[in-house]
Amino acid sequence: MNSKQKASHTGSVDARPRSLEMTVLVTPNMANFGGKMHGGDVLKILDQVAYTCATRYCGQYAVTLSVYRVLFKHPIYIGELLRFLARVNYTGRTSMEVGIKVIAENIKKESVRHTNTCYFTMVALDEDGKAVPVPPLSLRSDTDRQRFAAAQARRTARLHFKHPPPQGVESTHGA
Questions:
Q1: What's the number of CA atoms in the CB half-sphere (13 Å) around residue 45?
Q2: Strand order in the sheet with 81-91
Q3: Strand ranges inside 5-79, DSSP E
Q4: Are 3 and 65 in contact (CB under 8 A)?
């Protein structure tokens, strides 16, 4: 890694791309029994987008640790064009959060709608499959700082569920 690629949370500039846009045409082989895009196909593409964004950012192979909040807000129709807008929102020591927004475009009617937003936690691995450090994310704008803080809150919530309170200790999440 050269000096331009090293970044810090204190504002130095990193050279690795932190965002990515990918486009996919929804084809008939992606249809579910209702004639719309199968949710599993959406999830597979989301995972590929997260991998690509994370790997470009850290320069290492990256694997999915978790996915937060995949909500299918609107159906996606066969023949539509999907745009996946991905961005690294947060970096820890060996992990990154990649936020992905999905936009569906009806190319005949020239209309667009936001169909999904979700957050992938990706871990960087070396050739031996061991977690390795990722470049810290420089926070250049208020939006970067807001995304970073929101990602930290999601990370805290995820870690809380990984290590739930001991039996007999009341959870703050209800029944």
A1: 23
A2: 19-25, 81-91, 95-106, 111-125, 61-68
A3: 19-25, 61-68
A4: no
Q: Which domains does the chain have, with CATH numbers?
A: 19-162 (3.10.129.10)
Cβ-based neighbour number of residue 68 at 10 Å: 15
- Decide: 76 and 83 in contact? Cβ < 8 Å: no
pTM of the predicted model over 0.90 = no
User: Could you identify the residue written with the tokens 């597979």?
Assistant: 44
Closest Cα to residue 125, out of 147, 151, 94? 94
Supply 164's token pair. Answer: 């739930």
Token duo for residue 6: 């090293």
| Phi-psi map region of 11: left, alpha, beta (phi>0 left; psi -120 to 50 alpha) | left
- pLDDT (tens digit per residue) in 89-107: 999 999 999 999 999 999 9
CA distances from 58 to 18, 22, 96, 125, 172 (A): 9, 18, 9, 10, 35
